[in-house]
Amino acid sequence: MSTATTTSTDPAQRRIFGNLTWNQLLTEGRAFIALAIIVIVFAVMSENYLTVGNLTTITKQVAFNALVALGMLFVILHGGIDLSVGSTVGLTGAVAGNLFRGVDVPFTELIMLPKLWVVVLIAVLVGMLVGWVNGLLISRLNLAPFIVTLGMLYVARGLTQVLLDGQNITNELRGQEGLGNTGFLQIFAGSPLGIPMSAWTLILVTIIASLVLAKTPFGRWLYSIGSNERAADLSGVPVKRVKVWVYVISGLCAGLVGVLQIANISSSTADLGQFYELNAIAAVVIGGAALSGGRGTVRGTIIGAFVIGFLANGLVIVGVSPFWQQVITGAVIILAVAVDQIQQIIQRRRSARRAVASAKKESLARAAAAE
């Protein structure tokens, strides 16, 4: 008995190393090349660029953006978008700060001061709640993700300003010994083994996200919905439930960043998290994901986040004006999207040519058989 083996006829889908295909090499390889070029250019321009202190600063900042980007990856994979993540970061930071400051108990003169782990848990749950509301409105009412999350951006930012009431929360984050809520800054702004806590959190979330996308039915459902939602629905994929959960995951990641950020800057501020949604989308796209859904990886998203982080830091190091920094960053994002679209057009044309050639070959074979 012979065993037949099948290989993909599409060169872009042939495996070249482990699970890596030519298509993945093209989409993610360009981001890695861009990262290498950025590092080399700024290292030549400034001797302070690759110092240990600056690399630690970059890693810490990249970790914040990458965590939000990983949540955004789940949303984009199913063909959605989440513009509210930046405001969710600010809201969770404001919630945590207010819990450290104390919450008035209704109808009494008592003030509730939760323990440290309760503060962190509630803050992260608030982020997940924002995501759950987004997902519910999008999946159950069939509202456009862009509109829903844009509206939630304003809602969350407004609630942040209401909670802070124009005042930053700073000293209260240290907690009080007698209440058992101290250690927040030491834990979440610390650097165990010389690595920032934000980086440790990113490593953990990266591992979990990779396993979820590669090894679980949820990951397969996510890719199938992004590729063809109608077909996924007809094949029994719980489309509505998956949609809700991807926004919950996005809110969870934003909540974690909110907690880590206020510890990092030792303050809860009203502008915390601004533009995080744009950096997250940029990281996902630069990493090779398709905004239409169905394509993207954790590995590519992390590389994309490092591209944005190293570029932004390098522009600061060499003294580029903040205004031009935005121009350059925006140009890089546009270029990444344009390259991705060009690549997809080329792939579609190649597929069409192969289909035509295959049809002609089959037609000639049938004609020869008929003779």
From TrEMBL:
What does the record say about its membrane topology?
Answer: Multi-pass membrane protein
- The answer to whether the entry has keyword Cell inner membrane is yes
Please name the CDD domains in this protein's record: TM_PBP1_transp_AraH_like (cd06579)
Q: What is its main location?
A: membrane
Which GO cellular component terms are attached? plasma membrane
> Is-annotated flag, keyword Cell inner membrane?
yes
InterPro entries the record matches: ABC_transp_permease
Give one Pfam hit by family name.
BPD_transp_2
**Which sequence ranges are marked TM in the entry?**
31-50, 62-81, 116-137, 144-164, 184-214, 244-263, 275-294, 301-321, 327-346
Annotated protein name in UniProt: Erythritol transport system permease protein
